[in-house]
UniProtKB/TrEMBL annotation:
It comes from Haloferula rosea. The keyword Hydrolase applies. This is Uncharacterized protein. One of its GO terms (molecular function) is sialate O-acetylesterase activity. PANTHER family: SIALATE O-ACETYLESTERASE.
Length: 724
């Protein structure tokens, strides 16, 4: 290796922090052995002294520029065709750098957590040396771990910097380097290299390049731009305080707490220095990648984001699906903005089968993945259920078919290969004579039972929401489902468990997705229990007969026999009111004993009476304690908070008090930390002062309006279309 190349490789480890020493530096993505994206303009960028003239030459083109005031430079070359011919890139500024052995082909970004990071040497599959010459990989490895027993010292925190966290450069492949590459990414690249042979200019081959920024155990939020996180109230809560926000799940939050120890975060604009913290991996990778041109993204992530199973982190499945869909959609859309590529292909791996107590919400996470793929163009999902684990192993060793499934998608969607690439997807159903008939798209030559026996994993339910095992038979591209125990069926679910051994597939061998035809918020197989917890409004203060006129009673009448609604209101009590805390009341204990499926929370306004005796952090802490108690119930209730709270009207003591607005803001922040859903109870009531004769408590008409608003919220949640 020549001295210039050695200095470059050292510089790429620390990015811009060595600019003053190494002088002319290309960005970390540019090293010997790299692959540049064919057929697109080719930006090349880096750093040097401010105001420095820089000239870059590659493949017969030369471009010149000068650095800006921050010492950054960028040039752009005209698009080039694929080429297996190794070329040099010469960069001349305050010093000269020569990069060697550069190819032009297809460049993909691989990201996610441990199953994307899982190495070839750790998997059960054997590499394919015939295609080694066509594949180059850049494995960017995190330099600081996140082990269960690690507490970061000063030197760890120094290394946890966007300029120093990732190390790695491009490498050619042979038996030794390939062993330490991502297995999924390698087998994806191998399949592309194999299938694209002879597809280059004059029937030449097409090189494949992979940049891998995955990190074991991390979260989706870690890969999202800090400014994007801060613009979303729910995501901002986890960005601001990842040690406390329950929206990151039990795995990530517990590791962040343990690893950071007594660390004090001082700059609210920057991510916390931890590989699982929202925004951290983005800040550590993307500034060194963008505006590099890539063909697309392969993504294997979700194990951490689906882990909400222990006390303080238990979530209703539907809420998890809704929230994680929001997180994934935010990731995809923000990356497309940053890469200036509105249709950037984004191919995800659906979580496979597993059996472990902390993975029980995986069906709902798969639902979030499916919704993301169905709702956003050019997002595709590789269904790999059968390549998971029948036990608790979260790192199944059979990675080659996972990479192959991703490659099938790319070959069909981008490279115009006629290959089946989408799994069978439920699209519609109809009910006749006690049976539900399901129709599927993407079933290829027809549906099959890959085991040749009776189809497994189908359940059917009547209007009571009680699902029972069902008999299912295939007819072409349809499946008919029935059970003698459900003579009047209304809903079917398929593979709606974490560990389903799925046998329904297309004749081309692609496994059918899990799905449900219903959109029920909860399906306990009995009357749905709704607990309305709160203060005097929930109790019905001021009403002639609270037992029949308070909003919980009116809500029961609207929802009907399928629901059982009870009110647990306590007048004058709040979240943090020292002498009148709701979680010290008999009503609170009774609400917990009721084991509700849905919780409607109207607490907070009474805390205004103690304004100045507590801070925002105190409100968040006490609210989380309250919510955690309900979230930890075996029923995993769906929790909805009034936010903003009901209005106060002229004549009420605190009407127009600006602290009420601040209280609502604090309550909103507390809600975001817990991840519960909200209902705006201010807007439907604010124009009706006559409903509030004492300026704060509703009369019977007002209670009816509140009940109807809550019923509409629940109906809207139940009406969310099931996938697709």
């Amino acid at each position: 290796m020549n001295p210039l190349t050695l200095s470059l490789l050292l510089a790429t480890v620390v990015g811009t922090s060595l600019t003053a020493v190494a002088e002319t530096l290309p960005a970390r993505a540019f090293t010997d052995h790299m692959v540049l994206q064919q057929g697109q303009p080719l930006p090349v960028f880096g750093t040097d002294h401010a105001g420095q003239a820089v000239k870059v030459s590659f493949a017969g083109q030369t471009q010149s520029t000068s650095t800006d005031k921050d010492g950054r430079w960028r040039v752009e070359f005209a698009p080039l065709p694929a080429s297996t011919v190794a070329r040099e890139m010469i960069i001349q500024g305050s010093s000269s750098v020569t990069l060697t052995d550069i190819l032009v082909g297809e460049v993909w970004l691989a990201a996610g957590q441990s199953n994307m990071d899982w190495k070839v040497r750790q998997c059960s599959n054997t590499p394919h040396p015939d295609n080694f010459p066509l594949i180059r990989m850049a494995n960017w490895t995190g330099t600081v771990g996140a082990g269960a027993s690690d507490t970061y010292e000063a030197e760890d925190l120094d290394q946890l910097s966007p300029d120093t966290f990732y190390q790695g450069s491009w490498t050619t492949l042979d038996a030794s380097p390939v062993a330490d590459q991502s297995a999924v990414a390698y087998f994806f690249a191998n399949a592309l290299a194999r299938e694209l042979r002879g597809r280059g200019p004059e029937s030449t081959d097409i090189p494949i390049g992979i940049i891998d920024i995955s990190y074991g155990g991390t979260t989706t939020e870690a890969f999202i731009k800090p400014e994007v996180l801060q613009a979303n109230p729910y995501l901002a809560a986890a960005f601001t305080n990842p040690r406390e926000a329950r929206t990151l799940g039990q795995w990530a939050t517990s590791r962040i707490r343990r690893n950071l120890g007594s660390y004090t975060h001082r700059d609210p604009a920057l991510p916390h220095p931890h590989p699982f913290a929202p925004g951290f991996l983005h800040a550590s990778a993307m500034p060194h990648l963008q505006p590099l041109r890539i063909r697309g993204v392969i993504w294997y992530q979700g194990e951490s984001n689906a882990e909400f199973s222990s006390d303080g982190f238990m979530w209703n499945g539907q809420r998890l699906a809704d929230y994680q869909h929001q997180v994934m959609a935010t990731l995809v859309n923000s990356w497309r903005d940053e890469f200036h590529h509105p249709d950037l292909p984004f191919y995800m791996v659906e979580l496979p089968r597993i059996s472990a107590p902390n993975r029980i919400l995986w069906p709902w996470y798969r639902n979030a993945q499916q919704r993301t793929a169905d709702e956003i163009d050019h997002v595709e999902l590789a269904v790999v259920t059968e390549f998971g684990s029948a036990g608790s192993n979260v790192h199944p060793g059979n990675k080659e078919p996972v990479g192959e499934r991703l490659a099938r998608i790319a070959l069909a969607e981008l490279y115009r290969e006629r290959v089946a690439h989408r799994s069978p997807v439920f699209v519609e159903h109809k009910t006749t004579k006690g049976k539900i008939h399901l129709r599927f798209d993407h079933s290829g030559g027809g549906l099959v039972d890959r085991d040749g026996g009776e189809l497994r994993n189908f359940e059917i339910a009547g209007a009571n929401g009680k699902f029972v095992p069902a008999t299912a038979t295939i007819a072409g591209t349809s499946v008919t489902v029935s059970s003698p125990d459900v003579p009047e069926p209304v809903a079917v679910r398929h593979a709606w468990t974490m560990d389903a051994d799925v046998d329904l597939a297309s004749k081309e061998g692609l496994t059918a997705r899990s799905f449900r035809t219903d959109a029920w918020l909860t399906a306990p197989g009995r009357r749905i229990r709704v607990a309305c917890i709160g203060d005097s409004i929930t109790y019905g203060a001021g009403l002639a007969d609270p037992a029949t006129e308070a909003y919980p009673a009116r809500l029961a009448g609207i929802l009907g026999e399928a629901h059982e609604v009870r009110g647990f209101g306590k007048s004058g009590f709040g979240i943090h009111r020292p002498e009148k805390k709701y979680d010290r009341t008999r009503e609170y204990l009774d609400a917990l004993s009721y084991a509700p499926d849905i919780v409607i929370c109207n607490l907070g306004i009474n805390d205004i009476t103690q304004w100045g005796t507590y801070q925002k952090e105190d409100m968040i802490r006490e609210y989380r304690k309250l919510i955690d108690a309900f979230a930890s119930l075996p029923t995993r209730p769906y929790i909805i908070q009034w936010s903003p709270l009901a209005p106060l009207f002229p004549g009420q003591r605190f009407h127009a008090d600006p602290n009420v607005d601040t209280l609502n803001e604090w309550l909103s922040a507390a809600v975001a930390h817990t991840g519960v859903d909200t209902i705006d109870m201010f807007t439907p009531l604010k124009d009706h002062p006559k409903w509030f004769p004492d300026h704060i408590h509703p009369n019977a008409e007002g209670s009816e309006a509140i009940a109807r608003a809550v019923a509409l919220k629940l109906k809207q949640l139940d009406d969310v279309p099931a996938d697709p």
